[in-house]
């Protein structure tokens, strides 16, 4: 991604917006990645207070997001 010259993100979520703006990922994928990051941050900060069943169902129901992300990035790299 260095060749894209995206610049340094001001905040972590800026990276997703920059990747979307340059066509590396779609706008919906950028939103999905922001939500994934939010879940990860919540899991790390509230580790002892997490309902494992809810997290398991959320992750299991969204496994396709990883394939979708991979497909978008590979399509971008092939251009």
Task: Give a written overview of the molecule.
This protein has helices at 14-21, 27-45, 52-61, 64-78. The protein has 79 residues and is an all-alpha fold. It has one domain.
Describe, in short, the structure shown.
By secondary structure, the chain is an all-alpha fold. 66% of the residues lie in helices and 0% in strands.
Number of domains: 1
The structure class reads: mainly alpha
Question: Rg, please?
Answer: 15 Å
Strand content: under 5%
Unreliable runs:
none
Helix content: 55-70%
- First and last CA, distance: 13 Å
List keywords for this structure.
79 residues, mainly alpha, 66% helix
Question: What's the structural blueprint in terms of helices and strands?
Answer:
Elements: H1 14-21, H2 27-45, H3 52-61, H4 64-78
Helix pairs in contact: 1-2
């Amino acid at each position: 991604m260095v060749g894209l010259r995206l610049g340094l993100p001001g905040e972590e979520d800026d990276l997703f917006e920059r990747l979307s703006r340059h066509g590396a990922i779609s706008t919906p994928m950028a939103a999905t990645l922001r939500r994934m990051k939010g879940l990860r941050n919540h899991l790390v900060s509230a580790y002892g207070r997490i309902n494992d069943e809810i997290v398991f169902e959320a992750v299991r129901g969204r496994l396709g997001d990883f394939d979708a992300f991979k497909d978008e990035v590979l399509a971008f790299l092939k251009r």
